[in-house]
Amino acid sequence: MRLVDVQTEAASVRVSRTAITAPSSLQTSRNALSFIWTGLHSYPAIAFTLLSIAFGSLVISVTPPLRGPDEISHFLRIYSYSRGEFLPPAEVADRKGIFVERELYDQLHFFAYAGEWFATAGEKHVRYGQVIVLYREVDGRIDDDSDQPAIFAPFAGTEGYTPIAYLPYIPAAVIGRWLRLEVPGLVLLMRLFGLAAFTAVTAYAIRVSPVLKWPFVLIAMLPVSLFNRSVLSADGAALCSAFVVTAFCLRGARNVSAGRLWERSVWMTLCSLSKQPQIVFVLLELMALRFKERAQRWRSVLIVILPSLVLSPLWVIAVSAEIAAWRLQKDRYHPPEEFDPLWKLLYMWTILFIFRWQYGRRLPTGETDCGQS
């Protein structure tokens, strides 16, 4: 009986120790997670960097080559910049573009048609892996006619984008051409460069902003923002540069050091040149100052916004960019003057005048449209 009692007590002691040990391990895990979360919450720029790299890499891996929005057009513009061709090097049938090697043209053509086939064959359970296998089998060629040394490829609207919009992609394209990468590998390398660069710039904006750090993180981690950082696009540069400009203006509005003058001028210029409509961000420099300060600090304001006001219109004139014109010409022919801004304004004014004149004649005096109906 004595031996049995001792064993029972030992078993009881073992159970007690296990019961005590389990909560302590769980508590340790909770404390570790709490410590990590507190650290990330205190450093939103670091939290954003980790999230952007993790989810951006996932987007890159699951998005097939050249299946981003207008990614083939962006690829061609980046490729032309990597060859040192800053202005559109060729024009055929009023379409600006570039002459590329037959091998590259065949690869781009293959992925363009394969992408459409993949998008419309969902009911047949086609996987993009089958497209890659087919690409390896045919070596990216769509026919055997290799007599033509170079083929014209239109930019299809990307001729209006400056090199600023593609700054991370251009060195990646140069490296890829030096390594003789094929289109899938070259696109992957360019995407990775873009994700790293745009994540770093956005993290810098979050760090220097005096307020709204977590709203910056949430906006930058929206699906559309993440996707544009992860594929070939001009929107990644436009968004991250807009973050930096906004952060500097918030610092000025809160009487915090708004950065050195040349630094604000550089970022404002980069922002306005990444996409032409972003020239509107020059107004933020005025919003950061009180009304009385604008007259006193007009020289510094001019230094910040003048490069944007000069360079952005000059670029549009240099490339003769009418991005949507070719899309309209595909449906039916439009005379060249219909794309002239002054002609458009005069046309709208004339239509408005004729409409008001005829509409006024039809209505009796003192009778409104509602009364007539």
Oligomer: single chain
Mean pLDDT: 79
The 3D shape can be described as: globular
| Order of the strands making up the biggest sheet | 1-2-3
pLDDT < 50 stretches: 9-13, 15-22, 367-373
**Secondary-structure element order, N to C:** HHHEEHHEHHHHHHHHHHHH
Give helix % range.
55-70%
Number of helices in the DSSP assignment: 17
Taking all Cα atoms into account, the compactness measure Rg is 30 Å
Description:
The chain is mostly helical. The chain has 2 domains: 249 residues, no CATH class; 34 residues. The chain is built from 17 helices and 3 strands. A 3-stranded antiparallel β-sheet has the order 1-2-3. A hairpin with a 2-residue loop joins strand 1 and strand 2. The longest helix is centred in the first third of the chain and has 41 residues. The N and C termini lie far apart (108 Å).
Question: Helices and strands in order, then pairings?
Answer:
Elements lengths: L1 H41 L1 H19 L8 H12 L7 E3 L2 E7 H19 L7 H11 L11 E5 L14 H11 L3 H26 L4 H8 L2 H8 L4 H19 L7 H14 L8 H5 L3 H6 L1 H22 L5 H7 L9 H22 L6 H4 L1
Antiparallel strand pairs: 1-2, 2-3
Helix pairs in contact: 2-7, 2-8, 2-9, 3-6, 6-7, 7-8, 7-10, 9-10, 10-11, 11-14
